[in-house]
Amino acid sequence: MHTLLSILAFVAHRLVQALLVMLAILIIAFAVRESLGDPIREFTGQIVSEVERAELRKELGLDRPWHVQFADYLGRAARGDLGTSFIYKKPTVEVVLAKFPASFELVLGASLIVLLFCVPAGVYCAVRPNQLGAKLVLGLSVLGISIPVFVTGIVLISVFSVWLGWLPAFGRGDTLAIGPWKTGLLTRDGLSHLLLPALTLSSIMLPLFVRLVRSAMLGELGHDYVRTAWAKGASPLRVWIVHALRNALLPLVAVGGLQVGTLVAYTLLTETVFQWPGMGFLFLEAVTRSDIPLITTYLVLVGLLFVVVNTLVDLLSLALDPRVSLEGAR
Amino acid sequence: MAAGPHLSLDGKRALGPRIAAMARFLTIFIAALFAALLGCASIAAAEGKTLRMAYDADPTSLDPHEQLAGATLQLSHLVFDPLVRRRQDNTFEPRLAKSWEQIDDVTLRFHLRDGVKFHSGRELTADDVVWTFERLKKSPDFKALYEPFESAKAVDDYTVDIVTKAPYPLTLNLATYIFPMDRAFYSGTDENGRPKDAVVKHGASFASSNMSGTGPFRVTKREQGIRLELVRVGDYWDKASPGNVDKIILTPIKEPATRVAALLAGDVDFIAPVPPTDFRRLESASCCTLVTMPSTRILSFQLNQDRVAAFKDPRVRKAMSYALNRKGIAKKIMRGFATPAGQLSPEGYAGHDPELAPPHDLTKAKALMKEAGFEDGFSVTMIAPNNRYVGDARIAEAVAAMLARINIKVDLQTMPKAQYWQRFDARDGDILMIGWQSDTQDSGNFYEFLAMTPDPETGYGQYNAGAYSNPDVDRLTMQTQTMTDPAARAEVLKKIERILSEDAAMLPIQWQHLAWGSRKNVNIEPIVNAIDMPYLADLVID
Q1: Interface touch A47/B266, C-beta < 8 Å
Q2: Beta partners for B431?
Q3: What architecture does CATH give domain B50-57+187-292+515-541?
Q4: pLDDT digit string (tens) for A84-143?
Q5: Does a cis peptide bond (omega within 30 degrees of 0) precede residue B273?
Q6: CATH 3.30.870.10: does it fit domain B81-175?
Q7: Domain spans of chain B, in order of start
Q8: Is the Cβ of A174 closer than 8 Å to some Cβ of chain B?
Q9: Pair B431, B302: CB distance under 8 Å
Q10: What is the pTM assigned to this prediction?
Q11: Residue A86 and residue B202: Cβ atoms within 8 Å?
Q12: Chain B residues closer than 8 Å to A42 by CB
């Protein structure tokens, strides 16, 4: 009972934190509004007169000082209205959330690839550090981390789409609608479209996680309890997997949570290369077309996402590691 | 239910052998007819092709009058038909107007094709044209173009008079933007009680998500930013068109490298635009065809006389013009896919003077600088966009480097177009890049916007960021607006072009080229044009 209460208090605390984060993002977003470009320019033709543009600007309230616009925005936000996108002509929240499934599935695909490979590869590099294979894996991981995502994407497209013709070069393919969620995971076409973007996105995370698992494993392998296990005569697999790896995975969860931010940042590039209709692509589109309401909503929602993911990671660490206390996590 | 076969058996027995033979014949006949019909259907299915096309951005609205932009006009040519359109050689091709005649100084009479149907099933009449014309005059983006017009009048169901306020030489040019809309379909109010004909620049409207035109295709599916699907309408009036595309899937692919890869991989059949870096690759690929064509867009630099006193001296401006190696830019940066320019009007425009070759003479440039007392040069700033025109930032860098040779030190700043227009509108730079395409496909438009003395009242000189002012240019440009004799008018336009060149009013660099790529079996060459409006209805896929 006591733990449940403290968990609730912890979550409530985090929610307040989320609100503060979103407020801070909003203030920054509004303060830099002026330099995001002129949306009026974007939706008027070149011959539209300055007078006409000034009228439109006034109609949209963009001629007011930013703090006035900010107060106005907060007032509307309190009533659940986060503005209407200029490009999509729909409420911004609706537009961003409609793109969420695509991004989520891309991140999920990339995470699965990372998980699938980082543990075996990391463990292998830790237990057989001097073998050629381990050196090769580490070498490749250096290469992987130093090639820009953009280049990785183009190279994969050139090889698998243009040259071999195995996989499609762009887009998300066929999707199935399950309620409001449009998924590409349940169709063959959707999965074949997902593979290259997911590989590209994972190329940034995988090297990091291989190295993480390796060093955590190396650390664990030097501990006394491992020596005891060896002394007991436990099989190598049992020592590595059951004893050492279990403890080595703790930092993986913590770092993994922090890396969600990096992953979100790299979806911008990956989605652009593959014309993947997700949130990152949407954001870049909004920036190039100066869709200010859409930019603002995206930033706020991503801010919220960060806090939620970090909270989940903290709760997960709590479940996995008895040494972690909620007091510390606050 | 059992009565059918029972009766027929009964009848056959009763009606005798002759009738039985006839019944057999009928059966065979009907079977043959079915077979023929099925055969036709399968032939039709084999003939109707699907075109998968990728382009850089999709239209943000389905309303043809919301924004005067390439994407909107391209869509208009698919779902609507204009009164007249441009052929590849720049002449006018009758579309919904089958002919036209000048009635008096100010009236052009259009005779409409009869039997043309909107997608709603209604027949097109002169009332729809008049209604569309009036809506154009209300659209914030189009109304400036239709300023010289007085009204449109329906003479009878198939005759429309378009009347200008004064004699006007460009009525036909502007008829290319009149895509008659279905008056009944766009009248009344929508479910939210808003008028269906409203032109809304921001936010949703009926017309921004519903369409009814007379065009060859209608939209069947739209996921904004992802795909737009169109199918050919059953009974399109233009039977002479060789086009065999039944279905079009338009996909925006923003990243140029991915667009090219999608074409090479065979995921799409037709892409536009092709980035210059991939021209050679497409040309040498056995799967694909590259088609390029000079466009009518002039890329130019303006010299801000309000900020730099030296720019007021024509000798300095001329020196700068002489210092530029435009052929070098076209060759090295544009890889040959640009036409160096010594004037604003491209070839084929009335104002184009073939005598005005792009100048390049460094010695002369240095002499002029010395004569003007700027032998040691000066320092200026330059701004240019980096994602608006093909090669924009690199051209700006090259121009800055070339100006350094006559001791003009240029501090160049390039930025995304979203930020660029703010700076340009504020005239926040000493040298400013501007690309311009004439919406009227006429030279006069260049002078009105780029060269006339800026006047916020009339809107003339809106993009004349150099604040160049020459009363002769102003007067002559105004004069051409009411000249209806093409030969005499062309002389005046050429005269303006010569004055601008003599004055070095600005620094024209080149006319940009357009580039499209397609799979080998997609014959895009006959259907693309210098105004970048591919007529997809006429496309033939092998």
Answers
A1: no
A2: B303, B382
A3: 3-Layer(aba) Sandwich (3.40)
A4: 898 898 899 999 999 999 999 999 999 899 888 888 888 888 888 888 888 888 888 888
A5: yes
A6: no
A7: 50-57+187-292+515-541, 81-175, 294-513
A8: no
A9: yes
A10: 0.84
A11: yes
A12: 418
